Amino acid sequence: MADESGQEKTEDPTPKRLREAREKGDVPRSRELGAAVLLLAAAASALLFGETAARLMADMMVGNFRLERDALFDPAMMFAHLGRSLFDALLGMTGFFLLVLLAAVIGPIALGGWNFSGQALQPKGSRINPLSGLKRMFSLKALVELVKALAKFLLVGAGAVLVLGLIQQQLLALGASDVLLAMRDAVHIVSWSFLVISATLILIAVIDVPFQLYDYSKKLKMTLQEVKDELKNTEGKPEVKGRIRQLQREIAQRQMMTRVPEADVVITNPTHYAVALKYDPESGRAPVVLAKGADFVALKIRELAIEHEVPLLSAPPLARALYRHTELEEEIPAGLFKAVAQVLAYVYQLREARRRAGDAQPLRDQDLDIPDDLRFDGEE
Question: According to the UniProt entry, where is the signal peptide (predicted)?
Answer without folding.
Answer: none
